[in-house]
Amino acid sequence: MWDERYAAEEYVYGTSPNQFFREELAKLAPGRLLLPAEGEGRNSVYAASRGWKVVAFDTSAEGQKKALRLAGQKGVHIQYQVAGYSQVLLPEEHFDCVAMIYTHASASDRTKRHRRMLSSLKEGGTFILEGFSKEQIHNQTGGPRDVAMLFSEEELKFDFQELSELKIWKEEIELQEGPFHNGKASVIRLIGIK
Q1: CA-CA distance, 159 to 165, in Å (whole number)?
Q2: What is an example of a GO molecular function annotated in this UniProt entry (predicted)?
Q3: What whole-number distance in Å separates Cα of residue 47 and Cα of residue 25?
Q4: Are 144 and 104 in contact (CB under 8 A)?
Q5: Confidence check: pLDDT of 31 > 90
Q6: pLDDT mean over 164-183
Q7: Hey, what CATH topology would domain 2-193 get?
Q8: Burial class (CB in 10 A: 0-12, 13-18, 19+), 151
Q9: Residue 82 to residue 54: CA distance in whole angstroms
Q10: How far is the C-alpha of 156 from the C-alpha of 188, rounded, in Å?
Q11: Fewer C-beta within 10 Å: the chain N or C terminus?
């Protein structure tokens, strides 16, 4: 499905970074950043342009092609693996920041994926997450059509309980991220320190 979606000539989620990601990244000193399920590269290329050493991964080879093309256009370097969460090779306790932007999974995989990404974050590192809340099921502006794949504050509190200074909140926002994320949306945002 993702290869098919990303095979389009246009960048289906745009080439500008996610707004929340951009705002939170600006509060941090550049270091090593991990971006799981990075798709067409809009967030990784932006971060690299701000001095971050970026490692990204996604299951889509088409997404990787477009991400590397965008990096070339912007004159930056990103490392991008074509791999899923269970195959990706990641060092433990390595990254200064991990950002999961619209990385939804089945209920059975969600906690395992979140814990795996946490294990790659070093002590003192920042975790950033934005995804659709369960209320997004009532909107036609993006996200999975399976409510079990959408986030609740309680689920995220459980998955990220080891983080300190943990903040999780729901917001109604106006998304403008290409044709697939466009219009009024219900999102959950998370920030925490390992």
Answers
A1: 15
A2: methyltransferase activity
A3: 8
A4: yes
A5: yes
A6: 89
A7: Rossmann fold (3.40.50)
A8: buried
A9: 14
A10: 9
A11: N
H or E segment and range at residue 107: helix 107-119
The answer to whether 128 and 109 have CB atoms below 8 angstroms apart is no
Is residue 46 predicted with pLDDT exceeding 90?
Answer: yes
Cα separation, 101 vs 21, in Å, equals 8
Average pLDDT over residues 159-169: 97
Residue 190 burial (10 A CB sphere; 0-12, 13-18, 19+): buried
Q: Tell me, rounded to whole angstroms, the distance of Cα 137 from its chain centroid.
A: 19
Assessment of whether the complete model's pTM goes beyond 0.70:
yes
Backbone angles phi, psi at 42, to 5 degrees: -60, -40
**CA distances to 6, 13, 65, 100, 168 from 187, in Å:** 23, 16, 28, 13, 11
Residue 18: the pLDDT is: 96
Which pair of tokens denotes residue 115?
């814990």
* Beta-bridge mates of residue 86: none
